[in-house]
Amino acid sequence: MASLLRDTFDARQVAGDSSTNNKPWHCQACLFLNKGDRNTCAVCKRKRQKDDKPGYYHGNISREEACTILSSKDTGSFLFRELTPNRMILCVKHQRGVTSCSLFVDANGQIFLGSKWNFESIESLVRYFSTNDGLLTKLTHPVIRKAHERDLFPWEIKLSEIDVKYRIGSGLGEFYDATYMRSKRRIFIKAPNVRLYENNRICFAL
């Protein structure tokens, strides 16, 4: 099943471009709608913003994933994850488990923790709480995201979050009945029969 659906669907391959080739990255919408103008593409802007984040910013992962990562770590271990474009979550391992702190990010990039603290960046927040009180424990052990991990784009869903039931048909691809585990909603999946060659050219296997 995994060979049909793959882990995620990556539009960079459809666009004929890949960051693994050290070429300028463009999303599919950027290439085909904006003619490669990254300054007018919201997805490209969002990716550049994520690329500027430190290694302990894990991006679009779920609460369960964050807790799993931190559960085996030492007290004081922490990571950040994204909830929405203007909200992120600081997840911290303390003596009694893992706690989450909601952070608000304004249009100027200022980060607010409640009404008491605000910081210019994630790094300044970490520096402050590594030596000062205010959380259940000091931030002493950043958990760095693995090099192969990356944020999901808006059109991607992890295969691990899908419970595939059975195939319901075929034609220009395969069709499956499934459940999206995050929302427990029934979904239908279309997995095109495609073959990707070394130059990212796509061939449909009809």
Overall pLDDT confidence: 72
Strand content: 25-35%
Task: State the strand order across the main sheet.
Answer: 5-4-3-2-1-6
User: pLDDT below 50 for ≥5 consecutive residues: which ranges?
Assistant: 1-25, 194-206
Task: Please state the structural category.
Answer: alpha+beta
Radius of gyration: 20 Å
Portion of residues within helices: 10-25%
Shape verdict: elongated
- The number of helical segments is 6
Termini separation comes to: 18 Å
Q: Which sequence of SSEs, written as H and E, runs from N to C?
A: HHHHHEEEEEHEEEEEE
In total, the number of strands is: 11
Number of discrete domains? 2
- Major beta-sheet overview: 6 strands, mixed
Domain SH2: 56-143
GO molecular function: zinc ion binding
Keywords: Metal-binding, SH2 domain, Zinc, Zinc-finger
Domain RanBP2-type: 21-50
Describe the secondary-structure layout.
Elements: H1 2-5, H2 11-14, H3 28-32, H4 42-51, H5 63-71, E1 77-84, E2 87-94, E3 97-105, E4 111-113, E5 117-119, H6 122-129, E6 141-142, E7 162-171, E8 173-180, E9 185-191, E10 194-196, E11 202-204
Parallel strand pairs: 1-6
Antiparallel strand pairs: 1-2, 2-3, 3-4, 4-5, 7-8, 8-9, 10-11
Give me a quick take on this structure:
The longest helix has 10 residues. 19% of the residues lie in helices and 31% in strands. It is built from 6 helices and 11 strands.
Write structural notes for this entry.
The structure is a single chain. The chain is α+β, with helices and mostly antiparallel strands and 206 residues long. It folds into 2 domains: 2-51 and 152-204, no CATH class; 63-142, SH2 domain (SHC Adaptor Protein). The chain has 6 helices and 11 strands. The protein has helices at 2-5, 11-14, 28-32, 42-51, 63-71, 122-129, and strands at residues 77-84, 87-94, 97-105, 111-113, 117-119, 141-142, 162-171, 173-180, 185-191, 194-196, 202-204. The longest helix is centred in the first third of the chain and has 10 residues, at 42-51.
